[in-house]
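Lab meeting minutes (informal)
Scribe: AK
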Amino acid sequence: GTGTFITRLLQSGLIKPEELPHKYRNEIHANEIVLLAYYIAAINIEAVYHSLISKHAATTLPSVSYRPKIKNPQSSIVNPSSSSIPNPSYEPFQGICLTDTFQLYEKGDLISNLLENNSARRKRQKALDIRVIMGTPPYSKGQESANDNNENVSYEHLDGRIRDTYADRSEATNKNALYNSYIRAIRWASDRVGESGVVGFVSGAGFLEANTGDGLRRCLTEEFSSIYVFHLRGNAHKSGEQRRKEKGNVFGEGSRSPIAITLLLKNPRASHVGRISFYDIGDYLSSEEKLSKISELRCISGIAKASGWQSLTPDSHGDWLKQRNESFSAFIVLGDKKGDSATIFENYSRGLETARDAWCFNFSERALKANTARMIGFYGLELERFKLGEQGTAKDFVNNDATRISWSSSLLTALENHRSITHRPEKSTVGFYRPFTKTWVYYEPSLIHRMGQLPSIFPRGDDDNLVLMIKQRWSGDGNFALVFNKVVELQTDGGSQCFPLYLYDKGHESAEGDLFGKGTSTYTRRDAITDAGLSHFQQAYPAEGEGSSITKEDLFYYIYGLLHSPDYRSRYADNLGKELPRIPAVKTFADFMAFSQAGRDLAHWHLNYETVACHPGVTVAAVSNRQAHAEDGAGRLESAATYRVTKMKFGKTKDPQTGKNVNDKTTVIYNEFITIENIPLEAYDYVVNGKPALEWVMERQSVTTDKDSGITNDANLWATETMGNERYPLELLLRVITVSLETMKIVNGLPGLDIA
């Protein structure tokens, strides 16, 4: 950074004035990779040091100039035993290096031979026995688009250490998050201090709870004698009440991630290892309130005096916080691709990951076909250019113009393998992009980054099937399951695993070619729920005419009903945030069938949301006179009214306590001509993926333009081209009010969770 940690250390008074020159010249070090920040840091550190020694010299013997005793005239190392006062003349800070700290310890250090003086400093630092490391590690989880051509640097040795420690000790399936820069910093610092030392970081706090952080947490408790964590919260990725509790981030708008101050102590003489002390700053605090509290508490002993430290004991899963209910492990799991235990579903899949949503999804089928044809055409030009001038890797060769193409690692690999891509307009199909939001999708593997197991669930895109999409890493905000009958995008319900009612096995291709000169594949449909999964529940109700009557479809809907149970979600919340759901058998057959029927009823509302009745209790009015002409709930407005929507928003009302304008959720301003009034607030109780279903409709029924590609996505085109109904966005909002209210009626009427 710009030297803040070092300048505050110099100003803290922790270093005695007479020891400051020796520390400054020999024992304090700083690294920075950005040239401008490097120079600013050096100037800041030097200015603070000069100010301090000038002040000390002035208050000690202001009329005399002193020089320190030097062991060697050619050396800059001060004799620490000397009692001389330093000369307050300006002195450069020799402890700062222009370097990539991680790369410094790799074999192929790219900066080692640049800048002779800097190279000498780097060699000197590498040879030192470093015992204290502090800072704010960089936070980077990788590029968002391959067009950026800005992947995180790979560090062979450091990443190998992560692989052999944090990743090896983790039970997570996807461990990519462990190579985030701040996790790398923790691994690097843990190794650099050796057998004895202190690491102090202000960093992202995701490692405290993430399921991918289990191995890291295990290693920290084994490698350090004492661990202190001051959790500052501020997670802007949460929503609803959880988001309000997180409130301000200590970095303001500079970060959306939760932040923690972590102190890691290695003391070889300690009688204990892995002692964790934890302090949570609290709920509903603004950034300013958090900073004030940090200043007030000041240090470890400050929190101790306030009796704030909480002792944490890790559980068998490596969890420190939100530890799991161990009874959960006794239930049968939905699916398991790593073990050989009994499961309910034979196979399941992530949602569709295109890596180019703006190109592969669109409300307009016509626009989708044009966009994909344009991109594939440009890919063909790049392929021919690459064949002619092939040098190096594709990512360094290709044109990264985001208005013409969206690259991904899979598409770059296709280019390197000289793979041609043909545009297939018949591969356009209807899918879900967000809850209660259908759109057109280009369902063709050449432009899909990761298909997962979807070809066995929706092989042609429009196959007859149902999937329960389960939100992973659920944080307690609303429902985490939603049923779909079309292809679903990866994040449709918040990070996804899709459990299907059916699986499709590919058969032979017909001998006759289709219009495109290729045979047509045939598929055989079969149940996705295993016989063992069904038997598990049938055996739970041995009475005659009970368990044996349960079908796989009954079980499918039982799961959907159970996942909506408030009792289930609250009792196993900490488990559900870290692992796939496990499904208990409720105590009685009657309760089983009640949950199954509830699941069927919920699926009715959630699948038929486009055709259920519009909620009759609202008022649809023309803005000009606020007069309603509604007979069917959707309203028949004056002829001047238009149904085109660009962005819906809430009405405003004055808060009686603060006098400020706040959202009035009983009123939605649809467009400049239409408002919807008297919306029941209970409709917002149905929350999906952290947001009320109504607000998903408000967000997605709009006109947006992707900033990178320039592609416009207009919900009105779905209304007019696909549905043949310009009123569709308005009616959808009114219908989802009905869906939300009916959903909550069913949820509130579920049996209590009584487990055998």
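Next up, CB showed the second protein from the same session:
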Amino acid sequence: MEVITLIQGDDMSDLTPLFLVHAISGVALPFLHLHSLSDDDRPVYGITSPLHCPGGDVLKYPTSLKDLAAFYLDGIRDIQPEGPYLLGGWSMGGMIAMFIAQMLEARGEEVYKVIMIDSANPEVFPKFKSTEEHWEFAKTTFDRTISAGGLQSHDGDGADDFPVSPAITSNCEMDDYIATQSRHSSVWKSPSSPTISSARSSVASIFDSNSPFTSLGSPLSDGFLTDDSGCDSDCGSDCDEPPAMEEFLRHIKTHIHRGLDLISSVQLGDLFTPGTKSDFDAVLIKCTAGPIDVAEEYKGNSGAQLIETVMREQNMRWNPSQFRSFQSIPFSGDHDAAFQPQFIGELSSILRECIEDVE
């Protein structure tokens, strides 16, 4: 698996490439679900965290969201040395794309547009009050991501529609991998699939430990540690993952823990210099499905309440006057299931319309 991978289109095309940055999982696999975004083979690249790539275990992980964006920018410029640039990302990826855009402008490069899929302004996110709070948020996010984050098989065998990474297919037998997915079919279902039709928006499970998504569990959730844990000793046979699959999930878990730390560390002024204006268009594709609830035990948590409020807002705390233009486009999907089959057609159409006027 490479950090930047062509997921559709022709890399020799004269059209401006679209670079899409991963969400909190660190993987770009969900972008493979997108329908064609161009009739003219516009290249679309997915950006995966180096943690999921060869050598990721010894990576010195960036200490800020800005540093992570700078790392990705180097790779982007290897592919496209000059602007104009077209950037996007899902959730955390939209935040990173915005940092990349700011860096490009600071270097005198032209950025045409940044497209964010349900990404909030990271400057408003609160810092964690304790290691325990960080741990709980990371564990819940991991459970939610595995259950609903666009990484799962959609049917009984999962052979045709699960975008398995090269690392997995090269390190374990596909039959074993598919069998594993079948055993965990409830874990890997979409929160909006018919089998869980009564479930609320998976965004609701950000703090709701009793939500239908976190209660499903996941192969590694009970023994959540940040870096080098495998399976908890009391997981039983459910932890009987092929080695490469277990490693893949461990990397997701680690990336979520580190990613949340980077987001919560962004301070006012880190992304936008006060008094300046960005000379590019910004588009927020805003998920509208389902209520967002804070679990009862977090009702007194000011940080949880703030994030709940931000996730409900049409602009998600982005200041429209900060950009050349700003548009918030409603999307019927929910935050974690945005790339699921029931939503991917609508999402693809919105993205296609966002870039069709870019040469």
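CB comment: Residues 149-239 have pLDDT under 50 and may be disordered.
No objections, moving on.
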